[in-house]
Design goal:
Elements (H helix, E strand, L loop, with lengths): L1 H6 L2 H43 L4 E5 L2 E3 L9 H4 L21 E9 L6 E13 L12 E3 L7 E4 L2 H6 E3 L8 E6 L14 E6 L13 E13 L3 H9 L15
Helix pairs in contact: 2-5
Length: 252
């Protein structure tokens, strides 16, 4: 090979060297370009994930922060308190259809350095089975045979001053609320999204048996950062905040 190269003219050897260099450059670009594309793709996914949920935003129930994985209505006796003139400490044994019980669900920004825009999702359903008692394990599980629409969350006119209920995202089992303004770092929402819970009196006329079932609530808090919030909400949740009447374009 070396002998063959020596026999070539100087001009031919220069041309071969240039061609080899160009070929090497093409091979390098082929190796780098896919890696660069992959980096861009994964960076986008990572940003969307961070925008979707921030650890600093917490759910509150009746003004108390619920830890991650904590249960709502953990103390039924507190929910069933129904003060009367004769007995202010009266507690119902069971929920009475048509009576609104105090159940305030809201959010708190526990971050020390970041303002947020917040969404609250509340799921309601019926469960059947037995509550844990002594050595007996809790066997309560969700059932799809009973109507979650009979569980009613109270969203008052005062709540509507601070929250938007997204009707197009709501179902008989799920209700979605957006806090209208920025939730400043270290602050709680000015008013709860949900202020009470009740059972529709129509439950008395249904064919299904609700006598041995449990009412259950689950809630999830999501948030996006203030900068480019409309785009962040669109990316993370697929939501057009302007269509909901939210002015989330304010960054200050």
């Amino acid at each position: 090979m070396m002998q063959t190269l020596k026999s070539l003219t100087l001009q031919t050897r220069i041309a071969l060297i240039a061609l080899a260099a160009a070929l090497a450059g093409c091979l390098v670009m082929m190796a780098v370009s896919p890696a660069r594309s992959a980096l861009t793709y994964f960076s986008g996914e990572y940003i969307a994930e961070i925008q979707q949920t921030h650890i600093g935003v917490a759910l509150t129930e009746n003004d108390k922060v619920i830890p991650e994985g904590g249960a709502l209505i953990a103390n039924p006796k507190e929910l069933l308190k129904n003060p009367t003139e004769k007995d202010p400490q009266h507690v119902d044994e069971f929920m009475q259809p048509g009576h609104v019980y105090d159940e305030r669900l809201s959010v708190q920004n526990r971050s020390s350095d970041m303002d947020e825009y917040v969404r609250l999702t509340v799921r309601k359903y019926w469960a059947t089975g037995e509550e844990a008692d002594g050595d007996r394990a809790d066997t309560r599980v969700k059932t799809d045979k009973l109507n979650p629409a009979l569980i009613q969350l109270q969203f008052t006119d005062e709540s509507a001053q601070h929250w938007v209920r997204a009707d197009n995202e709501c179902t008989p089992e799920r209700e979605v609320f957006y806090y209208k303004t920025v939730l400043r770092k270290g602050k709680s929402a000015a008013w709860p999204a949900v202020t009470g819970i009740s059972i529709d009196p129509a439950i008395k006329d249904v064919r299904e048996d609700y006598s041995n079932c449990w009412l259950a609530l689950e809630a999830q808090v999501d948030s996006v950062q203030v900068n480019n919030a409309p785009d962040a909400a669109k990316s993370a949740w697929g939501v057009d905040t302007a269509a909901l009447g939210l002015n989330w374009s304010q960054e200050n």
